[in-house]
Amino acid sequence: MKLKKNIDFDKLRGGFYTPATIADFILTWAFNGNKNCDILEPSCGDGAFLKSIKRGKYHFNSVTAVEYYKEEADKAQKVNLDNTEVVVSDFHKYCNTTTKSFDIIVGNPPYIRYQYFDKEQQNEAIKIFNKNNIKYSKLMNSWSAFVVGCTNLLNPIGKLAFVLPSEILQVINAKVIREFLLSNFSKISIISFKKLVFEKTQQDVILLLCQKGNTKPHIEYLEVDDDKALKDIDLYKLKNPTKNIYSSDKWTMYFLEQEELDFIHQVKINNKFSQLNKYLKVEVGMTTGGNDFFTVDKNVVREYSLTKYAKPLLGRSIQVKGCDFSQKDWLDNNSKLLKANLLLFPSMKEIKNKKNLNYLRLGEESGVSEGYKCRIRDEWQIIPSAIISDAFFSRRNSLYAKMILNSAKAYSTDTMHRIWFKDNVNVKALIASYYNTITFIFVELSGRSFGGGALELMPSEVANLYIPYDENNDKLFGTIDNMLRKNIKIEKVLDYVDEIILRKQLKLSIEQIRMAKSIRNKLLNKRLNKK
Question: In 173-290, where do the E strands start and end?
Fold first, then answer.
């Protein structure tokens, strides 16, 4: 854990200054010709939105700008915007004590983990969550309380517009916030960027534009190259979102067209598709507490006489070409001096070999034994939950996520998820059934994408993937494995499987399969363009 004293001021206050292009666009949307507005900026920083209001020569009743840091509030005060009060306060406390309500709330709230808040701030944030029946979690980021608290301060047809991290669209712990938004707003618009707006932080952000009302909620999702392209957006689309909202699970899907969203919804309610949790259990791989120390190549095994404790390991999905990790694959990796061995040590009192003890001493001297995961163990060198799984699922992915049969009876670290199949499941049939375009759509929709284009799925997200399982698909397993081993492009593999499973078994039309491929390509390209 980083200490506050080791974090620069910008990171500690949780934000970076909002570009004028973004502030100007948000205010153009928010004002929309209105002149009698009371406005709140809950984390005004140096006054980026105040400057934008002044530039735009908007007419309004009042502006209230809240800022925690006095040095930032002083900068905002110097904007000299008429009818404006700059309040030096923690927003959470202000939110819980003010009697004011607002027509427009705009801002770029801080992105701070609650561990960096003092106790009073945390307690005030919890009050906001409790008031709205939202369970507080330490995994939540500070922007969550700003979204919830500011929504409470809006008038019945008020507007909220925030610059937020893209995680609001996709992470599991933000689901409660998405549900909250759906229950409070009738119009929700999202704008994302192909290029990073805050390059200094590598933080991928979106604009969230919401309006209260009495109608069923609808959503719109637009993507532009960068903040300079905001001026080209047709604001009519944002005034009148039309897409139906099927779920609060992930919002990354809503940049698709309505017919594509309908197609995905129809798959979910099709009884020929089931979620993976019907057939298997997924858990994270082993947390070693120091992969560089506990995973080694055969030369290290030989040098320190560690054969007794060295077990076969699949360290990364790149170490297997097909959908079956065999004993031969492991031997090949070992011969190539890959880190193909996991060291599973017993209790210290059982270790007598001097070379073994010398290796463990290296772990102590390099600080591995003092790392948090090792330090909390009864004996730092004993890795818990050392269990061999039936299969693996790649945790972080580029072009696609792999499901891999563990024929080698190897172990895995937390770079892979572990899978155990339920009784009476045809293992090879299930893995073969996974490799189709529609399931790959749900992989893209379920995971979290990062600024570099990587896609990460957590165990619960893997378990919720939709799959057209059929016991007869075990006949496809060998062909899929061979195609992958020959480095045949994944698109060709999916073509082969789609023709048999989607076209012949499920009787999907050519047009439906084409739509599925188009949807996957859109999702994939959107993610990879973040590189």
Answer: 187-193, 205-211, 218-224, 243-244, 274-275, 280-284
